[in-house]
């Protein structure tokens, strides 16, 4: 093997390693979650394939009825979560709770008392960051979305009965 072939092999391995180690984000349930009105819903953002064990995650949950009209629900930065008012200001009572189930991997958004106003797209956006020369630097991103559909209990009963699925 000559030097140029060896260099090509090493370069290919380095590039493929970057692709294979990309941040993977998924939202469960997804791509669609149907929840009876009046019930609570838990949306789980699962993060896998982190590139560096010493990195930190910046995570945001966003709500949108349509593309381009996102409202920030929660932002977690360096282990601190804040619930923002853009989304929750529409409701009279506390509407969401955010908690980390498995450190660095699983983040839950609990939405209380599902109503028609909660229908829409919920997106989990994650950045993997690390400190480099005294500055924070993002080096990996991931995004996943699920659509929440609130249904009346009666509509769900009719759907289950028409499909022949016992409750």
UniProtKB/TrEMBL annotation:
Superkingdom as given in the UniProt entry: Eukaryota
A GO CC term attached to the entry: membrane
InterPro entries: Ig-like_dom (IPR007110), Ig-like_dom_sf (IPR036179), Ig-like_fold (IPR013783), Ig_sub (IPR003599), Ig_V-set (IPR013106), IgSF_V-set/TM_domain (IPR051102)
A Pfam family of this chain: V-set
Domain Ig-like as annotated: residue spans: 23-140
The entry's keywords: Disulfide bond, Immunoglobulin domain, Signal
Leader peptide range in chain numbering: 1-22
Presence of the UniProt keyword RNA-binding in the record: no
Matches recorded under Gene3D superfamilies: Immunoglobulins
Keyword set includes Disulfide bond: yes
Protein name (record): V-set and transmembrane domain containing 4a
Organism: Paramormyrops kingsleyae
């Amino acid at each position: 093997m000559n030097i140029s072939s060896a260099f090509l092999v090493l370069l290919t391995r380095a590039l493929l390693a970057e692709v294979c180690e990309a941040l993977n984000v998924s939202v469960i349930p997804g791509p669609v979650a149907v929840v009876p009105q009046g019930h609570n819903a838990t949306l789980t953002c699962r993060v896998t394939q982190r590139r560096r064990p010493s990195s930190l995650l910046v995570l945001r949950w966003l709500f949108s009825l349509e593309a381009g009209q996102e409202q920030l629900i929660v932002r977690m930065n360096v282990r601190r979560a804040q619930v923002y008012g853009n989304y929750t200001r529409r409701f009279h009572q506390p509407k969401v709770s955010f908690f980390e189930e498995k450190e660095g991997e699983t983040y839950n958004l609990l939405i209380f008392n599902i109503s028609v106003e909660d229908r829409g797209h919920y997106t989990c956006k994650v950045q993997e960051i690390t400190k480099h020369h005294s500055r924070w630097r993002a080096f990996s991103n991931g995004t996943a979305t699920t659509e929440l559909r609130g249904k009346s209990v009666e509509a769900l009963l009719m759907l289950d009965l028409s499909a022949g699925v016992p409750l």
